[in-house]
């Protein structure tokens, strides 16, 4: 594989400045320089991608198509340079040209095409698929505005638009010749032919153009390059000239505006009809364009789609791309003229489904009338699939409608997308051992009884090259020294060799020094960004993730209030200073989540202004949590809060990132925490709380949170303080009432009060352990050593071997 020198990279950058921007280096701004660097790397990747494409066509290898409504890519300049092995050369070239490489890397906006773990997982998997030489493509929407920028104003979250494309479009290659048409609305007419065959005609539909904008994905240590195809929506009619000529200027551009709305923003609010309609349009838009594109390329090579399932596997990341099932049926039936049985055989041997949630409200259901009006032909096909499936269920369960109802695709005026996936996909997998077990025992139990072989587990993984080697270079160097080289970058299981240094004082001291330096670096960055000064002698106790009640940021907040009250009673109560760091975005329409953010702000304001807490207790809410912020925070973190209600978190991936960077976990036996516990043992993790079975058992028997309030004095004091409020004068009685009595949901639905005391004890145990630096550093080393199993490379090898049946790099 060709290596580039600093001189070559510098000449290529200067060439881009001249040809693409008409600028000499002395005239170039940071934006010019960033885009020139991105274009240089893009050219290198494009050449390799063409070679990869030619090789795939030559060998006829099976291709993986990974469909996800989210790809949370973060920043790409440093990542691509790292994977292409040109990072030192690029950094040197930038510096030689009179720019700061660090400032340039920092100036790149996050490509926030995702909301959290789902999108970050997709990005990690695309990196691993490429690194492992799997012919693969990712597909999503080219959102003009990604996940919102979060601003905290008067303690409350305010959402601001995030136009990442201003600079991020440097990575995108627009391919107008591969534009697809997507049809919405209209009517379907049946047509019967003299030979008895039947076809349909779609009339009076609205056409939206899907423009592919491709982002090249470089693998680590390989010439293999894959593509993330992002579809941008455009109107077929940029302007209605007759309306414009009559002076109706806004109406003249209405059709254009409506079409472009589809790719305008990630996840529009769906608590109203227009929002639901737009979400459904987004989902069909990107799967229709994707399947049409794959089918056209396949037909061009093979002249038929009869062997489509032999050459392609479509992996759908949660239910958002589930319409790929009826859309592929539509193409095979209506455009290719295949019989139902032949088309269904191809579909059911092509599409695989990854489930990411056990929460009933997160299992997508679409109103029947919305589907009928917006996607009339797709609706017809779903009805036929549903009728056939329901007939099979009734036969298998001898007409037991309770069991049939659980797995029915259409029921009660709704289309259940998860059940459509289970019906049609050749594989259904969960994302942690516990999660997969819950799917089989509860969520899809009836389907599992019928076809147990269909259900598998692939525990999530993270890109350890990005989330360890790239963001934590001193730790990366230590691992290489202790394991005999950089082999862990392609074989993460090699990190287990660290275990032999568990009692090596020099290694433990070095590990402690690295953590101390990372804490100081993060504190320096935060001070520069926000003026907040962190106590770097304190434990950095961190909870960063999407704000949802089941993730229990509120439990963390309740415990902090408990510590504050104890400190007021006894100023010597805290023997180890604590810094609690939160980072979370709440969905714009999720009022309770937003109120919890406001509460954290009120607690922080109270504690940080109390002289009694100085150098003892500090609370900070990190505004606008995002990938690039996480890259700075993870290496500095010491205690990782993974405290979701047992049985609710499918897997989690933040827990793995913290673990790899030497943070110790305080958590429940939920999601991948279960497997982390299996790896490190009781002695290297701070477990607490009810397990999943105990949660269900307590709910069955009748959970009474008010009893905990009445019989636990400390807990009562905490909740009473929420009612009273803090120095900003805001009462949080609404949250207290929700815990004690419920408000449109069961009281304390996520068992905070039941787990409070156990959590408090686990926190005390963590604090005592921190006072023994040798013990703490030994535990940290064990966690790092045992984290290799949570690398995305391992997960992708599992998919490749057990689901996709494709070869991987050895």
Structural notes for this entry:
With about 800 residues, the chain is of the alpha/beta class. Helix content is about 50%, strand content about 15%. The chain contains 35 helices and 25 strands. Strands 1, 4, 7, 8, 11, 12, 13, 14, 18 and 19 form a ten-stranded mixed β-sheet that branches. The chain has a six-stranded parallel β-sheet with strand order 22-21-20-23-24-25, with helices on both faces. A three-stranded antiparallel β-sheet has the order 15-17-16. Strand 9 (about 185-190) and strand 10 form a beta hairpin. The chain is globular and about 90 Å long. The model has no long low-confidence stretch (mean pLDDT about 95).
Name the overall outline.
globular
Proportion of residues in extended strands: 15-25%
> How widely separated are the two ends?
17 Å
Q: Structural class of the helix and strand makeup?
A: alpha/beta
Write the layout of secondary structure elements.
Blueprint lengths: L5 H16 L8 H30 L3 E5 L3 E4 L2 H7 L3 H10 L4 H7 L3 E3 L3 H15 L4 E6 L7 E5 L2 E5 L4 H4 L3 E3 L5 E5 L2 E6 L5 E6 L2 E13 L6 E11 L5 H5 L3 H4 L1 H7 L12 H30 L5 H4 E6 L6 H12 L4 H9 L2 E4 L10 E3 H7 L1 H21 L4 H7 L2 E2 L2 E3 H8 L2 E4 L2 H11 L1 H6 L4 E3 L6 H7 L2 H11 L21 H26 L8 E6 L8 H17 L8 E6 L7 H18 L8 E5 L5 H7 L5 E4 L11 H7 L3 E4 L5 H8 L5 E2 L4 H10 L3 H7 L1 H12 L8 H8 L11 H19 L2 H13 L6 H13 L6
List keywords for this structure.
10-stranded mixed sheet; 6-stranded parallel sheet; globular
